[in-house]
Design a protein that fits this description.
By secondary structure, the chain is an alpha/beta fold. Strands 1-9-8-5-4-2-3 form a 7-stranded mixed sheet, sandwiched between helices. A 3-stranded antiparallel sheet has the order 10-12-11. Strands 6-7 form a two-stranded antiparallel sheet. The chain contains 13 helices and 12 strands. The longest helix has 19 residues.
């Protein structure tokens, strides 16, 4: 059976972790700092801190923003449920926003409605590696905390006043702060953890005050940093493999009746997963793929809308995608024969 998910752990990652263990330096230390430096070079951010979980990262970001307890914090209905739970535990009120059915993202228009409903901060989950209109969203006047756990590596063109492209800016560099999750199924993994980034110097100066006072139990151990450090160094290689497989799958789906999300290709999105919105029964498709020894899973299992089903009436697009969108296996460790087999299945789905 070809599993839906598989972390890409090669010899380089194993060697880095083993070296950590042999040196008996597994707590937060040199490799924590080395990971931070790699993040700064990759994203071009001013400062960063490697923490033990995305939940801790979100708490630090809100603390640095000095958000008043009890404030409404906007999150996507398709964001991971931990965001909702963390906000409640910290004393904030989660304001859950529906998404666009075409790309599973909140839009500037949706966020504007959230602001009118009292939203003070937006936690922007960039689902499935797809990047929303970051310029439009960041101009709405509320602080944005980007979640680039799935969209790391994607970039947006920068244009001058004449409309000429002058370069590209990475996703994660538009928010006031940004969270790069390093959990098992994130596009870059350390086994667990997250890096909280401050794109600009002004934001980093504020965040650094809290980072300097952080207890060691909040910082990511070197054992996990070693894995994440190599993963980040190998990102372009892994992403090239994912793009090749994604293109193969995409071609197979063009003749089918099931839908893919709208996304910018090439550098404009990250091929973290291969989501497909089914036009037929999920149960029938699962049975069909299982007979051919390929596992698929619901793409948004564990999301806010699954955790808080009572939100379904106000988040109809998110609810629909929860029930109809599935992930097919897409990771660099797939062999050519395995990816070709999955592509053939995609072209003949019931």
């Amino acid at each position: 059976m070809i599993q839906t998910y598989s972390s890409t752990i090669r010899r380089k990652e194993m060697d880095a972790v083993l070296t950590c263990m042999v040196d008996e330096k597994i707590g937060p230390g040199e490799l924590n700092q080395r990971l931070i430096q790699q993040v700064k070079e990759f994203f071009k951010c001013d400062g960063a801190v490697a923490l033990r979980s995305p939940a801790i990262a979100l708490a630090y970001a809100l603390q640095a923003l000095d958000v008043e307890v009890g404030s409404k914090i906007m999150i996507s209905a398709l964001a991971p449920a931990w965001q909702y739970i963390v906000l409640e535990n910290l004393g904030f009120e989660p304001l859950v926003l529906d998404v666009e059915e075409a790309n599973a993202l909140v839009s500037a228009e949706i966020v504007q409605k959230g602001i009118l409903a009292g939203g003070k901060v937006l936690v922007l989950h960039e689902a499935e590696g797809i990047v929303p209109d970051l310029e439009a969203i960041t101009q709405l006047g509320v602080p944005v905390i980007e979640d680039v756990s799935q969209s790391a590596g994607a970039s947006v063109p920068e244009v001058d006043e004449n409309g000429t492209e002058t370069g590209r800016k990475k996703a994660g560099m538009y928010g006031v702060y940004s969270i790069l999750g390093l959990e098992e199924r994130d596009v870059i993994t350390g086994g667990c953890g997250a890096v909280l980034m401050a794109p600009g110097r002004r934001e980093w100066i504020v965040l650094k005050k809290f980072v300097d006072a952080a207890p060691v139990t909040d910082l990511l151990p070197d054992l996990n940093c070693a894995l994440a450090w190599v993963q980040l160094k190998e990102f372009n290689r892994n992403e090239a493999s994912r793009k090749e497989i994604f293109a193969l799958y995409q071609h197979s789906c063009m003749i089918g009746r099931h839908k893919m999300f709208a996304r910018e290709m090439d550098e404009g999105s990250t091929m973290a997963t291969f989501p497909l919105v089914l036009s037929s029964s999920v149960k029938d498709v699962k049975q069909y793929t299982a007979k051919k020894d390929v596992e698929i899973q619901l793409a948004f299992a564990g999301s806010v809308i699954e955790y808080k089903d009572e939100l379904s009436e106000n988040c109809i697009h998110a609810k629909s995608l929860l029930l109809r969108c599935v992930h097919f296996p897409l990771y660099p460790r797939l062999t050519h024969s395995e990816s070709a087999k999955i592509a053939k299945i995609l072209s003949s789905l019931p």
